[in-house]
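Second opinion, please. Please look over this fold, written as tokens:

===
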Amino acid sequence: MRTLLLAITLFCSTSILVQAQREAIQDYDVVLRIQTDGSLEVTETIRVSVTGDQIKRGITRAFPLRSKVEDQRARNQSYDIISVRRDGMEEDYHTSKGGGNLTLYAGRADVFLNPGTYTYEITYRSPNQVYFTPEVDEISWTAIGTENSIPVIRASVEVRTPAGVTPTQWSCYTGPVNARESNCSAEQTGDVVRFNATQQLIPGHGMTVAVGWPSGVVNRPPPPSWGKTNGGWLVGLLGILGALFYGFNSWQRYGQDPPSPPVRIQFAPPEGLSPASVGYIATGFPSENQMIATLVSLTQKGFMEITEEEKKGIFTNSEMFVLHPCGKIPSPDELTPEEQAVYDHLLDDQDVIELNGSYNSKLAKAFSEHQQSLRRQHRKFLNEGNNAKKILPLVGILLPAIGLTALLAKWDTTGYAFPAIITLGAGLVVGLPVFAWLIRKPTPEKLQLRAEIKGLKEYFSLSKEEHRRTLNAPEMTEEHYLSMLPYAMALGVSNNWSADLASDLLSTMEHQLYYAPTFHKQFRAQYSSTATQASSGGSSSGGGGSVGSGGGGGGVGGW
């Protein structure tokens, strides 16, 4: 029996000693004095045991700059530090903002505390903390925040209502953020409600109190003016009307296209334009069709050969295309700029390129240089008449209108401000691209060139019988077929053209591979899988009173 009593005594003594040696807030007492102007004057008395673990120079106190009120809206919070004291004496301190908090640092950077127990008293004021309802005015205040990194052994909160009015309702919550546990007691005496936590608050746990009293004591802010309550939708409406007026007026003045020239069948490509350039001008952007047309053009000029070879697999064999450099060195101006770019990055070192479906960085680099070359050659021509600068005033109307409407929406009582924001946002996201397309006014030269390209495309779309009946159509010889094939590929119509126009020539042509109806489709598929690196992405999803609601919050730590 004596041995058991001795063991129990030793265990209790050891526990007390360990607890005494760890850093902890022994007492955390908060007094809230509600002012008639709706502000709170807060005095926090914090008695803390210091060992030098976290608290070396003094404590820190973080004050959140945003809070969640009872209607779940976030609002800004501000704090006016009145005084900081340690053991009854004025204490040096400084503050900094970061991470959504205003953080107070008690103490000096060059002064370290000796281990022991210290009592800090922090007094500050925070405005606009009263929440008004028709019957009751109330506060909800997280007196002890959930960001504490030090355990709180004992905690209390005392709330003093304004002008001696008797509180009519109160509640208390403890635990982590959004917890609704009430491990606390409450006692009301006159105009004071005192709350006491009934258990320790471990790091990450806080204490929120709410107190209500009859309305009419705290000075309510004046109701918003007519301009504020209606300003949101009015500004939104003006923004919408202004955007529509500017957009329509600008389109009438700058965006109406001149008459397009008639499209007539063209038996030859536009003079001075390579196959890739024709495809680029037709669409306005680079594509794989243009790169494939350039590869075929290089083949026809003798710089490369395309063969179809068997690729052996584990169970079955398949066919793949192989690019063989021929070792020919181009003379000055023999190649177009985009052909020269492909030659320099793909054929110069004479390496064989297999279109086997495995990513080939060399082929991808050649494709990138090919795209850049086309952009450099034709950017100025394609941008003529785009009227891009006419878009900026529309952005200057929509963005400020959205911002000002959103700013005034919190006072809106009509319900029209939010639809106005949605409409303005739709104008920015959808209307702006539509306006950018409508405001373009192509030059006569651009319209003429694109009409010629459309005529060439119509020629490639002719069936064999239509070709024979077309007046002045050139005879379908191997030379003509080869000269036109890269242009047809660049415009994406080579499959039909090959099938319809070359069927009578397959037995006489030397390079039958290029003339097969399936060549373009199969070659493009193998090229795309070899020149394009596979990518993968991830996705993520997330799915009345409580701890952390209302004002206050933050936490205590050390520095």
Confidence is low (pLDDT under 50) at residues 4-20, 534-544. The two ends are 48 Å apart (CA to CA). The first strand starts at residue 24 and ends at 34.
